[in-house]
Amino acid sequence: MQSSDRPSGFSVWRWRGLAAVVPLLVPLAVPVAAVMATVATSACGGGDGPPSAEALHKKHAPVVEAKLATIDKILSQPFPAPTDAIKLDGPPLVVMYDTGEDTFNGNALYAFEADLRTPDTYQRNPLRYNFNGEYINDCVMMTRKKMLAGGHFDTYSRDPMPWTGDDHIVRMKLPKCAALRYLLVVKLDAFKQTEYIDKETFGGGGALAQVHVFDLEAGGKHAGGVTFAAQSSQTVRGGGIDSDLRENFYLALNEAVTKHLPDARLR
Fold it and tell me: With 90 as the cut, is the pLDDT of residue 74 above it?
């Protein structure tokens, strides 16, 4: 007959062994609980973990909102004509890249004028360059709606959506929105899409555009604007004909800006 102080089915040596091990396990409950508390704190934006989207919003939204109000003022006025010159009163212009979790130090973003007119949605634009330095619409939506902007992209479209589950995107972008000083607004005057004629031949595309620089920390002062043009290369290799035109477009844009701002750092 089994003793009442031993569980059914356990041999005497297993019971004694377990009895000796249990006291050793009890102290582990304290550090495990401490670790779980740390994880919970990090998830809420405290402790040593990365800040939550809500914590970032509380910190940066007031700063970003002031800049967005300045952009609203710019858009409420007739769009300025090119001045054939760009002159800054502040520090050199440095475009911030959307390259991952690490913040790329800078003070400027690109924005297509058409996107600024529809802040909740990026418009379809074959010249968009993978959002490197082009996410002012997300700045608007994250700050004012706690959402991510929708958009019409090359292969799909997306409605504006809550940022739930995308804290990493907020960590990547919202601090850059707060650091924004110079907004480079690109206004397309004419655009011709590239097209394939056959497997080895294509019809080249081109664009005529303006780029204007506004200083958001100087009340939206227009620092100037210039025109530029881009077209497809005669021979295209690698990324395809659309990528070629897109690359040439930004090369022309950057050359137009650095002609007047030689110390600017663009993409």
Answer: yes
